[in-house]
Amino acid sequence: MAGVRPDGDGVRIDLERVELDLVVRLCEGLATRLRAGGDDAVIGRMAPDASRGDAEADAELRRLLRSELLEGRAERLVRLATELRSWAPEGGRTGVRATLDPEAALALLQGLNDVRLALGAQVGIERLERSELAPADPRALTLELMDRLAGLQQGLLEVLGA
Amino acid sequence: MASAAPAAPVVEPDVGTEQREHRDLPWVVIVWDDPVNLMSYVVFVLRRIFGFDTPTAERLMLQVHHEGRAVVAREPRERAEHHVGQLHGYGLLATLEQDG
C-alpha cells in the first residue's frame, strides 16, 4: 500500500515494488507514444488546443507549441522513469522507500498526472458512464488503475501543497 | 521567462480610436473543466503558476468545476500564451482569447 509523508522539505514515499514497476512502464510507454507522434485522443489530450473558435490562430499556435510540448513531456517522463528505476531495491524485497526533494516530488506528481490523462483519453473518459461498465470491461480496470494513481497523487499534493 | 509589461501607450494620430482600442484589448486565459484532473491538483497548479493564495485558487477551481470554465488571467497576449503553455505543461485544459 502506497504511503506518502512529509520528510523535512521533501517527501518520503513507500511503494510496493509492483506499483513502482507499473508506474515506470506507464511513463516509458507514454513517452514512446508521444514521440511516435500522429494524431489521436492521447496526443490531442497531451497537446490540447490553445484557442477555441479561431482555427487559423489555433493552427499557428499549435505548430509553435505542439511539438515542443510533446517532446518536453516525453523527456520529463523518461527522466522520471529513470529516477524511479533507481529506487528499485536489489534482490527480492517487495517494498520500495524513497525520499524525494520537492523538485523530484513535483516531477512524480506531473508524471502521474500525465499518465492518468493519457489513460483517460484512451478509454474516452469524456463519454464514459462508469456505472454502466461491466466489472470485467478493460475500461473499468483502467479506471481503477487511474484511481490508484490518483491516490498517490493526492498523497503528494497533501505534502507539497501544505 | 518573458515578462511583457505593456509599454506606455504612444499617441498615433493616424490610427482610428476603434482600431487602437481593439489592438490594445488584453487577452484572457481560460481554464476548462475536464474529468481527470484532481480538484486539489488544479488548485496546486493555479497557485504555482499565478502565485494565487489558496482561497483565490480554490474559488477559480470551483468555478471551473461548476461552470465548465473560468478566466484565470487578463494580460498581454505574449504573457497569456506563456501561461497557456505552462498550464498545458501541467495537463490543464487552457485556452487564450482576446477579451471583449
Query: Radius of gyration of chain A over alpha carbons?
Result: 17 Å
Taking the sheet with the most strands of chain B, its summary is: 3 strands, antiparallel
Assign a percent range to the helix content of chain B: 40-55%
Number of strands of chain B: 3
Low-confidence stretches of chain A: none
Structural class by SSE content of chain A: mainly alpha
Average pLDDT confidence of chain B is: 84
Specify the overall morphology of chain A.
globular
Question: Would you report the number of β strands of chain A?
Answer: 3
- What is the averaged pLDDT score of chain A? 89
User: What is the helix tally of chain A?
Assistant: 5
Strands ordered across the widest β-sheet of chain B:
2-1-3
**Mass-distribution shape of chain B:** globular
Please report which band the strand proportion of chain A falls in: under 5%, 5-15%, 15-25%, 25-35%, 35-45% or over 45%.
5-15%
Largest sheet, spatial ordering of strands of chain A: 1-2-3
What is the CA-CA span between the terminal residues of chain A?
22 Å
Strand percentage of chain B lies at: 15-25%
SSE arrangement of chain A, N to C: EEHHHEHH
Instruction: State the largest interface.
Output: A-B, 30 and 21 residues
Low-confidence stretches of chain B: 1-20
Assembly category: heterodimer
